[in-house]
Specification:
The protein has helices at 58-68, 108-119, 125-135, 148-160, 163-168, 192-206, 223-232, 245-254; strands at residues 5-14, 17-26, 29-37, 44-53, 78-83, 95-100, 172-177, 183-189, 214-217, 236-239, 257-263, 266-271. It has 278 residues and is an alpha/beta fold. It folds into two domains: 29-135, Roll (Ubiquitin-like (UB roll)); 148-271, Cytidine Deaminase, domain 2. The chain has a six-stranded mixed β-sheet with strand order 8-7-9-10-11-12, with helices on both faces. Helix 1 (58-68) packs across helix 6 (192-206). The protein is flat, with a radius of gyration of 20 Å.
Length: 278
């Protein structure tokens, strides 16, 4: 399986001198997710999706993806995730099969329709938000007042733990913190949604509570990232970049505290706790 970083030959221009050099780039490879389902002795396989990701933590990515997209509602519904060995040589390491619990009633046709709808943010903003609310048994807990000193310290803590970013400068990150600002889980990926799914998948596998945690992402806060937080029950999401209008609307409707433009000593609160601690 390819590693998260690869060396590439480049021609480097510096100080009016052109020379040959090596550059480290983040690896981008496809991951095909297949689902095994049905009663024991009558298992069927359904090819669900292909996502471009950075190799590593594929089980967490798959677990988080299935949960945040509503294909499973309980971690116990996923028995295991394994890399498929009976594939073409060029596909080895890039195909996984997620084995669902035999008692789980499934409808592959509904999965496919639901997946393609949610991935494209639905027909309109309202239908997208309604679909998220249907999948969520409860809303995220109220975070309460925001502590500026805690929030503004998080990006540096996340950046210090980003090993792949240090080598490549070209990868997204997502990090789960507790209320004291302690880093619990960090994952990096070429896709921002994959990084979030890996964090949520790791949390589900370890079964730590997500309802008293906050998630920080290195880029913008789009609708799909906010919906993943809502489905996972994470009460506060902070982003280095800006949110979208639909992301803010979903956050407000769901009770999620949403922070954006977290840079240096400043940030904006777009939804949730409207009053920061002084």
């Amino acid at each position: 399986m390819p590693g998260p970083v690869g060396a590439i030959d480049v021609q480097r221009y510096e100080g009016e001198v052109l020379s040959s050099a090596k550059d480290l780039l983040v690896t981008e490879e496809p991951l095909e997710i297949r689902l095994g389902h049905g009663p024991l002795g009558e298992r069927n396989e359904f090819r669900l999706s292909v996502t471009m990701r950075t190799p590593g933590h594929d089980e967490e990515l798959t677990r988080g993806f299935l949960f945040t997209e509503g294909l499973i509602t309980d971690p116990a519904q996923l028995v295991r995730v394994v890399h498929c060995e009976d594939v073409k040589p060029e596909e080895r390491g890039n195909v996984v099969r997620a084995e669902l619990h035999p008692d789980l009633e499934v409808d592959p046709a509904r999965w496919q329709r639901n997946f393609y709808t949610t991935s494209s943010c639905g027909v309109c903003g309202k239908s997208s938000i309604d679909a998220v609310h249907v999948r969520c048994a409860t809303k995220p807990a109220d975070w309460g007042r925001v502590d500026p000193a805690l929030i503004t310290a998080l990006p540096d803590r996340m950046r210090a733990a980003q090993t792949v970013f240090k080598h490549t400068g070209g990868i997204h990150a997502a990090a789960l913190f507790n209320r004291e600002g302690e880093l619990l889980i960090l994952r990096e990926d070429v896709g921002r949604h994959n990084a979030v799914d890996k964090v949520i998948g790791a949390a589900l596998a370890g079964r730590p509570a997500t309802n008293n945690r906050l998630l920080l992402v290195s880029g913008r806060a789009g609708f799909e990232l906010v919906q993943k937080c809502v489905v996972a029950g994470i009460p506060l999401m902070a982003a280095v970049g800006a949110p979208s209008t639909l992301a803010v609307q979903l956050a407000k409707d769901s009770g999620l505290t949403l922070i954006g433009f977290l840079r240096g000593e400043r940030f904006n609160i777009y939804a949730g706790a409207g009053t920061a601690k002084s």
